[in-house]
Amino acid sequence: MQRKPAHIAMFTVPAAGHIHPGLEIMRELVARGHRVTYAVTEEFAAAVEAVGAESVLYHTTMPSEERGEKYPEEDISAVTIFLDEAVHVLPQMTAAYEDDRPDLVLYDIGGWAGLVLAGRWGLPAVQISPTFVAWKGYEELMAPVVEARMQDPRGVEYYARFSSWLAENGVESPPDRFVALPERAVVTIPKALQPHAELVDESVYTFVGPCLGDRSHQGDWRRPAGAAKVLLISLGSAYTNEPQFYRACFEAFGGLDGWHVVLNVGRHVAPDSLGPSPGNFDVRPWVPQLAILRQADAFLTHAGMGGTMEALACGVPMVAVPQAVDQFTNAEAIAGLGVGRHVPKQEATAAVLREAVLSLSEPAVARRSRELREELRAAGGAPRAVSVIGSYLP
Predict the structure, then answer these.
(1) What are the residues whose beta carbons fall under 8 Å from the beta carbon of 388, sequence distance 6 or more?
(2) Residues 312/207, Cβ–Cβ less than 8 Å
(3) Rg of the chain's alpha carbons, rounded to an integer?
(4) pLDDT by residue (tens digit) across 276-299?
(5) How far is residue 260's CA from residue 174's CA, in Å, rounded to a whole number?
(6) What angle do CA 146, 150, 154 make, to 5 degrees?
(7) Over the stretch 130-142, which tens digit does the pLDDT of each residue have?
(8) Which of 65-74, 165-174, 189-198 has the lowest mean pLDDT?
(9) How far is CA 385 from the centre of its chain?
(10) Cβ neighbours of residue 177 under 8 Å, at least 6 residues apart?
């Protein structure tokens, strides 16, 4: 049945790893005639509008990469900033949508204000998850984490404040269930990467794989003539203040015969502060990552979910040097799937990095990378995600 165009509102947090994975879904919704409004900060408005969505601007309390602020790595601090953001954003979005109610709400795993609004408006809500989801037994697994939080006065305050905020807004679910157990979700990672995938309820979660699409607005990149191999090195956008690691990469890959190396050092390290770079290196504060991965032979990465998905979709094998949060789980999965190596940060010497990257040329790694790339393509991507979303439209 052909459904009439609808107004669909998307809510998330202002971070690249939360916004970019779902942009192609927004583009597909717009292409099918729907009006998509997207709650976003000024920093990401251009990216949202590039896919045809309308930006609904708000002020944020989240750490700003532009101001050199980092996301906290410690557990209670990390979850608290998401609660602070939701409390801060909710009244802004209440006012913004007062005379422009949507027909359906989409929300990222951190877009808690959007889920509260969906309940208040009596609307269906579909989560778009760019990372792992809950499985049968997940709550039991999380019990020790919750217990540890409750041993800390800050954790007690977090749960009390969260519960009070939910109750004030008519939400009966306790905080952890509210956060982790959606009624319906589209998941933009492959099922192969999901822990305990066999225990995931697929009546709730649909794995559609990475939704990459057109990134021409980020710029283009051309493989240099004569480069037999291309290596991309990037620690993403948040955990990039690692000059010692970058110098180890100079030592590991400088002058390596036939290899052209693109090193993304991020905003926190000036390229010239690292000293003279080897002749086969291109050192930049930012790169169009997907454009490079589509032509690369290897990826040395922190194993953030966004970059991991891009590399898997391009069939590029990886060496993972995780820095924080879910990157450790991703690194283990990369190694377990046979598409790369996991090198702990404390072991990432020049010799170890060089050996790990050269090992990616093994035929079994290349074969498995190609196989997984095809599995991801078969998952359906943005068109399948939109089909799921469309089934919830009135």
Answers:
(1) 126, 184, 186, 206, 208
(2) no
(3) 21
(4) 999 999 999 989 999 999 999 999
(5) 52
(6) 115
(7) 999 999 998 898 8
(8) 65-74
(9) 16
(10) 139
16, 102, 295, 302 from 237: Cα distances, Å: 8, 32, 21, 10
Question: Phi, psi (5° rounding) for residue 263?
Answer: -115, 115
DSSP single-letter state for residue 255 = T
Residue 197 is encoded by which pair of tokens?
A: 């995938």
| Alpha helix positions (H), 151-222 | 153-168, 175-180
pLDDT of 205 strictly over 60: yes
Q: Report the candidate in 57, 67, 71 with the shortest Cα–Cα distance to residue 18.
A: 71
Counting every residue written for the chain, the total comes to 394
Q: How far apart are CA 111 and CA 91, in angstroms?
A: 14
Gap between the terminal Cα atoms of the chain: 12
Q: What phi and psi, each to the nearest 5 degrees, are found at residue 149?
A: -60, -40
For 249-275, give one letter per residue: b (16+ CB within 10 A) or e. bbebbbebeebbbbbbbbebbeeeebe
Q: For residue 252, give the amino acid letter.
A: A
Contacts of 344 (CB under 8 A, 6+ apart): 321, 322
Tokens 């068109």 map to which residue? Answer: 383
Query: Inter-axis angle of helices 153-168 and 75-96, to 10 degrees?
Result: 20
CA distance 360 to 263: 18
Could you tell me if 327 and 302 are in contact, meaning their C-beta atoms sit under 8 angstroms apart? yes
Half-sphere exposure of 246 (CA within 13 A, CB side): 28
Report how far residue 151's alpha carbon sits from residue 85's, in angstroms, rounded to the nearest whole number. 24
**What burial letters (b/e) apply to 143-152, b meaning 16+ CB within 10 Å?**
eeeeeebeee
Are 312 and 373 in contact by the 8 Å Cβ rule? The answer is yes
Lookup result for tokens 């598409």: 339
Q: Give the burial class of 226: count Cβ atoms within 10 A of its Cβ; 0-12 exposed, 13-18 middle, 19 or more buried.
A: exposed
Residue 247 sits at φ, ψ, to 5 deg, of -70, -35
Look at the pTM and tell me if it is higher than 0.70. yes
